[in-house]
Amino acid sequence: MRYFELFAVPVDYNIDLATINKHYLELQRTVHPDRHANASARDKLMAVQSAAEINDALQTLKHPVKRAEYMLSELGVDIRAEQQTLQDPMFLMQQMELREELEELSSASDPDTAIANFEKQIKQLNEQYSAQLAEQLASNNEQQYQLAADNIRKLKFVYKLRDELERIEDSLFDD
Amino acid sequence: MALLQIAEPGQSAAPHEHKLAVGIDLGTTNSLVATVQSGEARTLTDELGAAMLPSVVRYQAGGITVGADAVQAATQDPANTLISVKRFLGKTQAEIEQSYGQLPYDFCEDNGTLAIQTEAGKISPVKASSHILGALKARAEKSFGNQEILGAVITVPAYFDDAQRQSTKDAAELAGINVLRLLNEPTAAAVAYGLDSGQEGIIAVYDLGGGTFDISILRLHQGVFEVMATGGDSSLGGDDFDSLLVDYFKQQTGVSVLSPSVLRLFINKAKACKEALSQYAKVNVVLEFDEQKYTVEVTREKFDELAIPLVKKTLRSCRRAVKDAGIENEEVLQVIMVGGSTRMPLVRSQVQSFFDKEPLTSIDPDRVVALGAALQADVLIGNKPDSDMLLLDVLPLSLGLETMGGLVEKIIPRNTTIPVARAQEFTTFKDGQTAMSLHVLQGERELVDDCRSLAKFSLKGIPPMAAGAAHIRVTFKVDADGLLSVSAMEKSTGVQADIQVKPSFGLSDDQVASMLKESMSNAKDDMQARMLKEQQVEALRVIEALEASLAVDANLLDEVQLANLKAEIAELAKVRETAQQPSDIKAAIEKVDNASSEFASRRMDASIKKALTGQSVDNI
């Protein structure tokens, strides 16, 4: 997988972020456009493209959902452009409840504590759904890949909740 | 006594020749130019020894005055004396009036762009900025016995959006300056401090200038300055504190409607009062106009009371930036203060209590940005080939596209490291739809109306298909200067549309070109000569760059490719000597460029592989 190769790290969902970050800086030192400020137009263009790709690779590997989606697509199951297809009534029910809870946060009597509690819940769900991902993605088994895809879909819900929570926090700060 | 330079045996001195590059801080209130000499950055001064050039330009029928002389005229000739024009860059008249209220200018339109009517004609903010930049360029050239300035790093507030950055670059181009890089002001300040102390860790840069506020969180690590998050307000600065005092004066004197010249008097007095209050606990302001005389007493407590909401506003941005960086306040190792407004005791104490750390103020907050820019310019122009320094900046505001219902779909979120390229696919809404109009926006809000509109363009010639069948891929590219270009393509047919994002109220490339021509009042021949010279210089640069690459990496090409490339280079060298038309050289440069594309891409791949060899073995 190109992104893992780029940073010279083993292909594994459980990444070593410190090494990736270190190698990222080494790579940017080589390719960043500022390193080619006096080069030909063609070299400069190459530098911008390469630097952009390395930045994108880092963003992808850093983010648990993007990383999983990327790995899965490299394994032949691309779910990045799909419309929602998750069919798990239990899960969806739980999500709806969480959403309701989320909407009531800003009017809670003690928003700070309410937000902290909600954050804890999200963290728990995050751990639950990502726990099996590493194995599933390394399984070399089509059925496991489909399970991984479902796990990623669920993780996406969780991350959406997290983004929403952040927005609510921001709006509370801005008052 | 100047030291004699002696080259190593067998090497000519030429490769070590010091190239002249400058750093320019184009500020709202004051602008500066700095350069590196003998390894040390210093600001360049005018004949009177002043480093700061007031960012004020006066336009009279007889000519243009920049700087202190223009400031003198501000009270008597407010309508023709443009002050703080940086605040107007990339803005519409409505936005300006909403942000700054009553201003003594006669706003008008010039070819669809905002301008101010003066005795010397319609002057756009870009043009006024170019006159300020031109004055600094002239100062630098004069300091070095008319040696040519080969390039400049120009600083912009980190929070500047695409329209404001593009305007700044246009202004530099108009002034005949080769822009090496647009650099964010806080990053420049960090460079000035960072190289000084060799610090490692997370630092915050709090930059409150004349018209803008920026907060940036950076990580310093072995010469790499990595911006983790940035935030701020592109229309909050010292001028706003002045305007609070102006309102206070109005209230105390009971004079609410001011003529332009009295308004200017009030603003000048407010500025002086604010500055004095940094030293004294109480200031008496005397306002004399229209044969009336008022004295207003302002205590520091009163001023703090007026100013605290604005300072709190800056702290909210700080909190968000810290959060975006994914860190806690305690992790910030140092806080750097930049900008004249950080001299206000209230600002210092509030920032200190927010970060629980005494802020650093050892480098003059007015000059620190220019000094940092000069250090970066010195590296970029190639005077320090062994430098480890690398600046990794981020996109300050999210970029997105308008979708159905007036909503904004974010394509690149704020604080993404640049350069960056990102694509997103969209589809048609109606059966048989053959065109799609794209509206590019920048900002954090969800509604189109709350974001800044950067550009609108359309993709035409989509073959008629059922709704949802066409796949339109829109690609956003942001370069290291933070400037955006957008392209769109229908995937099945390859129908394509490209645009350089130029805001509807900014300048098109043609406009910049025609203004350039206008500004060169001389005959057409001079223009031709200048363009020929420019192409000759460019050709030489291309040849030298390629020869240097070939000396190292010729083995990446096979014999035929190598011979082909060398032939094109030789041809360019010949054309460069003999051509009379700039376009001939340009064509030859393009041919070399095409012939070298494979070489460029192989070299980049090879260097990427090389970058991690040696350490990767242990890790796999």
UniProtKB/TrEMBL annotation, chain A:
One of its GO terms (biological process) is [2Fe-2S] cluster assembly. SMART domains: DnaJ (SM00271). GO terms for molecular function: ATPase activator activity; protein-folding chaperone binding. The keyword Chaperone applies. Residues 2-74 form the J domain. Keywords: Chaperone. One of its GO terms (cellular component) is iron-sulfur cluster transfer complex. Pfam families: DnaJ, HSCB_C. InterPro entries: DnaJ_domain, HscB, HscB_C_sf, HscB_oligo_C, J_dom_sf. It comes from the Bacteria. Belongs to the HscB family. Interacts with HscA and stimulates its ATPase activity. Co-chaperone involved in the maturation of iron-sulfur cluster-containing proteins. Seems to help targeting proteins to be folded toward HscA. This is Co-chaperone protein HscB homolog. It comes from Pseudoalteromonas carrageenovora IAM 12662. The lineage of its organism: Bacteria, Pseudomonadati, Pseudomonadota, Gammaproteobacteria, Alteromonadales.
